[in-house]
Here is the input.
Amino acid sequence: MRRVSAICAAAGIAISALAVAPAQAGYYVIRWENTGICQIWNEDLKYKPVEWPSHYKVVSKPVPTLSAAMAVQATMRQQRHCTL
Here is the structure.
């Protein structure tokens, strides 16, 4: 009986570990105030961008992939919200 309980407990732990997948880091677009340049930033990076000599503003919602962030950045350039 103890073996069956131990096997069930081990199976439960293994299944719960597989079910909890690590969250993917997202990307978002930031815009620098002094130049108007929009840049893609990864949320997985440890540090935020250095705000000297200019400040930045987050101008998009987080998106899951780099290609989606590039599409957001291209759209903002076409709408003249970004200079580069």
